[in-house]
Design brief:
With 497 residues, the chain is α+β, with helices and mostly antiparallel strands. It folds into 3 domains: 105 residues, no CATH class; 211 residues, Aminoglycoside phosphotransferase (APH), C-terminal lobe (Aminoglycoside 3'-phosphotransferase, Chain: A, domain 2, Alpha-Beta Complex), CATH 3.90.1200.10; 160 residues, P-loop containing nucleotide triphosphate hydrolases (Rossmann fold, 3-Layer(aba) Sandwich). A hairpin with a 2-residue loop joins strand 6 and strand 7. The protein is globular, with a radius of gyration of 26 Å. The relative contact order is 0.08.
């Protein structure tokens, strides 16, 4: 922080100037704003600066940006974002009472405990999969409600996506001039161009289908905080429509690569999986790797700029370049299916497999969730179906397995490993997915947890008593499955994982 501050900020360090009691005032300064922490509240004042990516140059512009920031953040965290308040008086004697000419505007917010920020929780090893499941559900709901970009806006158009991606290289090539960095940047640039050409029709269709929306825009772990056991979003981008009106897949990619950067790939893979499962937007998986590389290169660019400004080494930039290089190279994929009756532990086993993937490149498809989606039901909604009827009759089961097959084929083609969590009681269904693995050129495995009849019944009873589960299986369903299951044959036993 500079040794000298503008008179206004210096004066606002006096606790007695605030309308609410504040024992002291702390200051946090960024390149674009001052954040004054006064008691239970925080006051964000934008610096009178004009940068290539933002314009806070006039009082009128700063007021508009404060109002925009309030509007955007109240979509997701209204309890934190309170008001835009005028500051009157003079720089050396500022007042919040509104008397006198207005000299500045501040965004007033409730404070929260910094220890609850997800970057801090992640660094200390306290971030848990269930918290990311809740975040994924929040994001799926937020994106579903967010405004949709029109084709006329140009947001999300393929040409704009490519221009933003290539912009990273033009700056990084200047900031990182050594030969090794230039070689790596050349590989990444060639990959970006080739991947864009392959995905251009999909980018266009996602824009047409309404997948480009007014998002958060800056969804790294430092802009997420745990309050009252729920993850909240804050600090949406207000200064750039280009950075805010984006494909929802690009939004998720930011948090995904941040978790990889924090060396928590299991959580990165879990977040991506939970968001895809909750939103049903599996088309996002086809472009997620492109956006992940793009986001890693954005972070590399920012790190390189900061290093150049401070005269420091470019270690952080090199780190992000290496991450981008790893992300562009999909590891060998595999297809895993589960086998067993309800209550045997298929979902628990598939969850363990998913979290054990150190490359964050595995996605899980759950038959209970996709079956409900086919019939317009939420995962935990009750269908009221009778035994072997309703959404569980033979034709509904055929539709469900067909959907699982089609999704698995799409995800495998996009370079993801896939776990299909379903009963797979019949040999013919297992054979169909084994053939899919051969067609895709990937390894095939079966996971078949074993349990005693007493354990199975106890688990089914417990699950029904707790509720909130996608499965609707009852003891009658269990009995029917035990009577009809087709055991794995010798050739299938060789595929057991």
């Amino acid at each position: 922080m500079p040794q000298t501050l503008p008179p206004l900020i210096q004066a606002l360090l006096e606790a007695g100037r605030y309308p609410d009691p504040a024992p002291r005032v702390d200051l946090v300064e960024t390149h674009a704003s001052w954040l004054l922490l006064a008691g239970d509240f925080a006051y964000k004042i934008k610096k009178p600066v004009t940068l290539p990516f933002l314009d806070y140059g006039t009082l009128a512009r700063r007021k508009i940006c404060c109002e925009t920031e309030l509007r955007l953040n109240r979509r997701v965290t209204p309890e934190l974002y309170l008001d835009v308040v005028p500051i009157a008086g003079s720089p050396v004697d500022p007042r919040f009472d509104g008397s006198g000419p207005i000299i500045e505007y501040a965004l007033k917010m409730h404070r929260f405990a910094e220890a609850g920020r997800l970057d801090h929780l992640c660094a200390s090893g306290e971030l848990r999969p269930q918290q990311l499941s809740q975040l994924a559900a929040t994001l799926a709901e937020f994106h579903a409600r967010a405004a949709v970009a029109t084709p006329a806006s140009g947001f999300g158009q393929p040409a704009r996506i490519l221009a933003q991606a290539l912009d990273n290289f033009s700056e990084l090539e200047t900031l990182l001039p050594n030969d090794a960095d230039q070689d790596r940047l050349a590989r990444l640039r060639d990959w970006t161009r080739a991947e864009f050409e392959r995905l251009a029709p999909l980018f266009a269709s996602r824009q047409t289908d309404g997948r480009v929306r007014e998002c958060h825009g800056d969804l790294h772990l430092g802009n997420l905080v745990l309050i009252d056991e729920r993850v909240r979003l804050f600090d949406c981008i207000e200064f750039s429509e280009d950075l805010r009106w984006i494909d929802v897949a690009s939004e998720i990619a930011f948090t995904y690569i941040d978790l990889l950067d924090q060396r928590r790939p299991s959580l990165g893979g879990w977040l991506a999986n939970e968001w895809l499962s909750g939103s049903g937007d599996y088309g996002a998986a086809e472009v997620l790797r492109f956006y992940a590389v793009y986001r890693a290169l954005v972070r590399a660019k920012v790190a390189a700029i900061r290093a150049a400004q401070a005269g420091d080494g470019a270690e952080r930039a090199w780190h992000y370049l290496a991450l981008a290089d790893r992300l562009r190279q999909a590891p060998p994929a595999r297809l895993v299916i589960t086998h067993g009756v309800t209550g045997c532990g298929k979902s628990r086993a598939s969850r363990r497999l998913l979290l054990a993937d150190r490359t964050a490149s595995t996605l899980r498809l759950r038959s209970d969730v996709e079956r409900k989606r086919l019939f317009g039901l939420a995962p935990t909604a009750r269908s009221g179906s009778p035994l072997d009827g309703g959404i569980y009759d033979r034709s509904a089961s055929e539709l469900t397995y067909r959907r699982l097959y089609d999704l698995a084929r799409t995800l495998l083609a996009a370079g993801w490993s896939v776990i299909v969590d379903a009963a797979f009681l019949e040999r013919r269904r297992r054979d169909a997915f084994h053939a899919l693995a051969r067609e895709a050129g990937v390894a095939f495995h079966i996971v078949a947890p074993q349990s005693t009849p007493a354990q199975l019944r106890a688990r089914v009873r417990s699950r029904l008593a707790k509720g909130g589960n996608a499965s609707e299986a009852t003891l009658a369903v269990l009995d029917r499955q035990l009577a009809s299951i087709e055991a794995l044959q010798a050739d299938e036993m060789a595929c057991l994982l």
